[in-house]
Design a protein that fits this description.
The complex is a heterotrimer of chains A (about 170), B (about 500) and C (about 425). Chain A has about 170 residues and is α+β, with helices and mostly antiparallel strands. Chain A is built from 7 helices and 8 strands, in the order βααββαββαββααβα. Chain A has a domain of about 110 residues: Alpha-Beta Plaits. Helix content of chain A is about 30%, strand content about 20%. The longest helix of chain B is centred in the C-terminal third of the chain and has 25 residues. In chain B, helix 4 crosses helix 14, helix 8 crosses helix 10 and helix 11 crosses helix 14. In chain B, helix 15 links the parallel strand 20 and strand 21. Chain B has about 500 residues and is of the alpha/beta class. In chain B, the strands form 7 sheets. An 8-stranded parallel β-barrel of chain B has the order 9-10-11-12-15-16-18-19, surrounded by 6 helices. Chain B is globular. Chain C has about 425 residues and is an alpha/beta fold. Chain C contains 9 helices and 26 strands. Classes of the chains: A alpha+beta (about 170), B alpha/beta (about 500), C alpha/beta (about 425).
Chain lengths: ~170, ~500, ~425
């Protein structure tokens, strides 16, 4: 079993303010200062979450860092990968911007950078920080951090547990 | 006519050095007072639409906004104030009655602030609430004249049903329909968390809130919305609403636009119809009729729940209260002129009724004089703003108080007083699902609980300071109060001495 | 002897290695690779030719991949035959290597078009890294190139050659480009973009003969037109490399037929990738779907089955994501619809944006998105999971269709299942 942090979305509390997008930019800026980010870095830093609104609904489209990520399996260069914390990340040096990941992502969480059209943009958990900025600044508790226990991708571990179970049943008899 | 004489009430100051044109203010304002110009790529404001609710200010990530009263001045006139002039301009434009939300804002004296508390010095020493047990637990209901015990020490006298509160505060009646379901849920959750009660108001009880029944007082108002057997069984107390401090003598009106699916099914009226509460209960035309209703409710709940009667504080409130006590009520709620509302005609809200401080003192005095004070618990309402007001109210004779506006402010209300528009930017006084999302019941309930907990500590500090460790010793204890800045007559009616005496 | 043997060293092979290693960390894996390179991403060769990426970026996994995963790698070794009874494979040099579990991941090879005069100097396929290395040397100082085939490979080759400074002509037999994945309307948008880049397109025509002695000097088309060129690229389709199973009684259609566990009709022999023919999602017929994501997923599941646990692969369906000269194209599912089908189109000619969604029997069956491709994956998901879509089909017109437009129950299913999927 592995533990990982996951951003949980409760769409019934999203008020459609867009602060997640605002602070996502700050988190990925050079200056890390909100006013400088927007005044000086406006054209170079884009948000990695997309707020969608269809009143009365609204919520941010955001990478779910899936355990069995379709984008990682489909990536033709191997640029999309899972790190030790089970986060899905994109190695921009390897990426050629074919956007097969966009074709595969069922959450619409990956978008094409507007100012450098060749690369995909998606949530990176704020560089593996303790608390991503979107969660920290959501004013109504729509985004929260949850600890999640995920099944091991390692099949052999699961199967060995299955084996043990069978043995126990036999001895019971 | 193509123009309005009404200049904007507020101006919006946007500090361009701090504004990052992030559009959060634009996205959040339900009055559309901010807008984004895609050509300029900047956010601008339409000040005539601003209602000063502070939503944009609270969410602005760079604190770039400031809203001020429009300094636009009329020629100085002590008689014709700016408000008086604007009100006439409004009515000339629309021909309608002026509506207001929330309580009376007029500047006549706040009597709580003219009442001072005692403290122990030397004799009858203070009690430290951090070291000694302090009893704030309150029981609301009819108390027997005397208690008889059996041989083995068990209680022989049958005590009528009581409402048990951890401290003498409850959340007042705010109907689902005037406030959102999220707001009602937050009140219910906080009442449960802090072990007090909340009142459903005249909108009935939504099915999702039945699980909070132990902390609920259900209300039977003149429109009888949502009243049926399960409803009566659901709460731990029942309240008959005769009147409300903000609008004594008239009924209520919830416009059809606010009566959506959930509101309609909870009130048991067709969706989209206006919910009209008539001024009198049309089956209560005398005190005997009231007695009949009280006992009908008691019968149908098998005498297991205390029945309360809520009246507005009006001129003969003491006599009325005496009548109500004799009619069989277990609790009487008195709602003063400062009481809040979702919508009331401005003139009635500002001119009709009397302050709860006087009403409370008069009722408590009269019931004591008539020797029937034990028959009812008296609850005071109508702008209880802080724990100091609660202590004073209890000392003046209240068994408990209701808070309304204070609870809403705790949840996020900024008293912009536009509740009647149904566009409450904080998700409280609205049914628009886009807006009601803004009130996260978990967060709001926590804020309400925090308020109650804070007040609980302050109450104990003040009580301990007086050398009292049980609320029973504070109740009706006018000796603990002194008046200041009050006339002799005012002191007389309140039944308190002047500071120094 | 290693327990696992993989013939092939591309997407399916890497998928299989990773699949095996989630179960079995110990037993050695042998990989027989015809090409003399570590696994590289085949779609990247056009970027490589155009100079957009350097050699390092070509490799799909790092250099340490094989060692880390205990793989014996035979580079530049061609396997010619499988001896299924003896359970070994025969290499070109005669060596026989035994196996317990075998995966055929030999992929496909470029097809040879029916043209006279092939085989001259200056003619290249555009399929492997070797093709591109020799092409790169050959185009120095050359001016004109002709590409036979206006499919995915042909157009990518043409784009790369243009970026290398050549004048390029593309000859396509169908009346419009990419006719296997685009409809005419969408294709014309692409046509516009390609033509404005300077490439000449000849549609509805084909090459009859190659002109020249030892070197390519030009081509003659069916209609008689002659086009000068000194570089000729053949990109007229691919054929799966099924020959390795010839002579044995294996079920072979266009490709090697496999079931959902990627097992062939022969015991202990699996197939995955461009060489495999599996039941497809939408029409249920068995087809080869030669796309990278499919190859990797098939390899992954084949590997797990080879290692002893029972897993089934999702049924595949065609889908592609490519861009030409900045115009992004994403397609998925079917190109045609049946009689009961419906077409939902939205065009924005100002922004060269086109979207076409096909629906049949309450399900989305096909998608073409040109220009605006953000959030295409949600439609792919609708196709893949056969989600009933009548209740929101009006909203499918939106270019920005995304999870907010789904009914709440569908959206909850999406977030609950996809994020946690194994």
């Amino acid at each position: 079993m592995t533990k990982k942090m996951k951003i949980e979305l409760r769409e019934e509390y999203c008020v459609g303010c867009g602060l997640c997008e605002v602070y996502c930019r700050v988190a990925h800026s050079q200056s890390r200062d909100i006013i400088k980010t927007f005044k000086k870095e406006r054209w170079t830093v884009e948000p990695r979450v997309s707020l969608v609104i269809e009143k009365p609904l609204s919520f941010p489209l955001q990478c779910q860092h899936c355990e069995d990520a379709p984008c990682v399996k489909a990536c033709i260069t191997g640029a999309m990968y899972k790190n030790e914390l089970e986060l899905t990340l994109c190695d921009e040096d390897k990426c050629v911007g074919c956007f097969t990941c966009i074709m595969e992502c069922p959450f619409g969480a990956i978008k094409i950078k507007e100012n450098n059209p060749s690369l995909p943009l998606k949530c990176d958990f704020c560089f593996e920080a303790d608390e991503p900025f979107c969660v920290l600044h959501c004013p109504n508790g729509a985004l929260t951090l949850k600890e999640k226990i995920i099944k091991n991708v390692d099949e052999s571990l699961n199967d060995s547990i299955a084996q043990v179970k069978t043995e126990e049943v036999d001895t019971d008899e | 006519m193509g123009f309005s004489m009404l200049a904007p009430e507020f101006i919006i100051e946007r500090n361009r050095d701090r504004c990052i044109d992030c559009r959060v203010c634009e996205k959040q304002c339900s009055m559309e007072a901010h807008y984004y110009d895609p050509d300029e790529e900047k956010v601008y404001s339409r000040e005539e639409k601003c209602i000063n609710c502070h939503r944009c200010i609270s969410l602005c990530p760079t604190r770039a906004l400031c809203i001020k009263e429009n300094p636009q001045e009329f020629k100085r006139n002590a008689n014709w104030s700016r408000n008086s002039i604007r009100e006439i301009q409004k009515q000339a434009q629309t021909g309608g009655i002026l509506l207001s939300g929330m309580g009376n804002p007029k500047p006549f004296p706040i009597y709580w602030d003219n009442i001072l508390l005692n403290a122990s010095q030397v004799t009858n020493p203070s009690i430290d609430p951090l070291r000694e047990p302090m009893e704030l637990k309150t029981f609301l209901g009819r108390k027997p004249k005397k208690l008889e015990l059996n041989q083995d020490g068990s209680l022989k006298t049958e005590v009528p049903p009581q409402l048990e509160l951890s401290m003498p505060v409850m959340f007042t009646a705010m109907s689902f329909g005037s406030i959102s379901l999220n707001a009602s849920t937050a009140l219910a959750m906080a009442a449960k968390e802090t072990d007090i009660c909340y009142n459903t108001g005249e909108g009935g009880l939504h099915e999702s809130l039945y699980s909070y029944g132990n902390w609920t007082i259900i209300q039977v108002a003149s429109g009888r919305f949502g009243v049926y057997q399960d409803y009566l069984e659901a709460g731990s107390g029942i309240e008959i609403k005769i009147g409300q401090g903000a609008k004594p003598g008239i009924g209520g009106h919830l416009p059809g636009e606010k009566v959506g699916e959930e509101v309609a099914s909870t009130r048991m009226i067709p969706k989209g119809t206006d919910a009209l509460s008539p001024a009198p209960h049309h089956d209560i035309y005398s005190i005997e009729d009231l007695r009949q209703l009280i006992y009908a409710l008691k019968e149908s709940t098998r005498y297991k729940k205390p029945v309360s009667v809520k009246i507005a504080a009006v001129h003969n409130v003491a006599a009325i209260a005496s009548g109500i006590a004799r009619a069989g009520a277990d609790i009487i709620t008195i709602d003063g002129i400062r009481g809040g509302t979702g919508a009331a005609p401005t003139r009635i809200r500002d001119s009709v009724g009397i302050p709860v401080e006087f009403a409370l003192a008069a009722v408590d005095e009269r019931l004591k004089e008539e020797g029937i004070r034990n028959q009812v618990s008296v609850v005071a309402a109508g702008s209880i703003r802080n724990s100091g007001d609660i202590v004073k109210a209890v000392a003046l004779g209240a068994d408990a108080v209701y808070i309304g506006t204070a609870a809403l402010v705790a949840m996020g209300c900024h008293l912009c007083r536009k509740c009647y528009t149904g566009k409450c930017n904080w998700g409280i006084a609205t049914q628009d699902p886009w807006l009601t999302k803004r009130l996260n019941p978990e967060i709001a309930a926590e804020r309400l609980s925090n308020l109650i907990i804070g007040w609980d500590h302050e109450f104990k500090e003040m009580m301990g300071g007086m050398g009292i460790n049980a609320i029973e010793s504070l109740k009706g204890n006018r000796h603990m109060l002194r008046g200041i800045g009050l006339t002799n007559r005012e002191l007389e009616v309140l039944g308190i001495k002047l500071a120094g005496e | 002897m290693s327990k696992y043997m993989i013939v092939g060293n591309s997407a399916a092979a890497i998928g299989a290695i990773e699949g095996i290693r989630t179960v079995d960390k110990q037993d050695k894996i042998t990989v027989i690779s015809q090409e003399p390179y570590l696994c590289y991403s085949r779609p990247l060769i056009s970027y490589f030719l155009a100079g957009k990426i350097s050699g390092e970026k070509l490799y799909y996994r790092g250099k340490e991949f094989y060692e880390k995963n205990k793989v014996n790698l035979y580079l530049g070794s061609r396997a010619v035959k499988v001896n299924s009874r003896e359970k070994n494979i025969e290499l070109e040099d005669g060596a026989c290597i035994p196996y317990q579990k075998l995966l055929i991941a030999t992929g496909s090879r470029p097809a040879v078009p029916p043209v006279k005069g092939l085989g001259k100097d200056g003619q290249h396929f555009f399929y492997s890294l070797s093709d591109v290395y020799s092409l790169r040397d050959n185009i120095k100082g050359r001016e004109r190139a002709v590409v036979i085939g206006g499919g995915l490979i042909g157009l990518k080759a043409a784009e790369a050659l243009l970026l290398c400074g050549l004048k390029v002509t593309v000859i396509e037999r169908s009346p419009y480009l990419l006719s296997s994945i685009l409809n005419e309307k969408a294709s014309r948008l692409l046509e516009e973009r390609i033509q404005s880049s300077g490439i000449r397109l000849v549609l509805g025509n084909s090459v009859k003969e190659v002109i020249g002695d030892a070197r390519v000097e030009g081509v003659t088309l069916e209609d008689g037109e002659e086009i000068d060129c000194s570089i000729l690229v053949l990109a007229a389709g691919v054929k799966p490399n099924t020959e390795i199973l010839e002579g044995i009684d294996a079920a072979i259609g266009t490709g090697i037929q496999v079931n959902r566990r990627l097992e062939t009709s022969l015991e202990n022999i699996y197939a995955a990738g461009d060489v495999a023919e599996a039941e497809t999602l939408l029409t249920k017929e068995k087809k080869v779907i030669p796309i990278w994501p499919s190859a990797y997923c098939q390899g992954l599941v084949a590997g797990k089955n080879m290692a002893g646990i029972d897993r089934e692969c999702d049924e595949e369906f065609p889908r592609n994501s490519i861009s030409f000269f900045g115009l992004n194209i994403i397609t998925a599912g079917l190109l045609e619809m049946g009689d009961k089908g419906k077409e939902i189109t939205s065009i924005d000619s100002q922004n060269s944006t086109y979207q076409r969604i096909l629906m049949e029997n309450d399900r989305v069956t096909g998608m073409i998105k040109i220009g605006e491709v953000n959030q295409a994956g949600i439609i792919t998901w609708l196709i893949k999971n056969k989600v009933p879509a009548n209740s929101f089909k009006e909203l499918l017109k939106r270019k920005c269709f995304n999870p907010i437009h789904l009914p709440l129950s569908v959206r909850e299913k999406l977030y609950r299942e996809e994020g946690a999927r194994r």
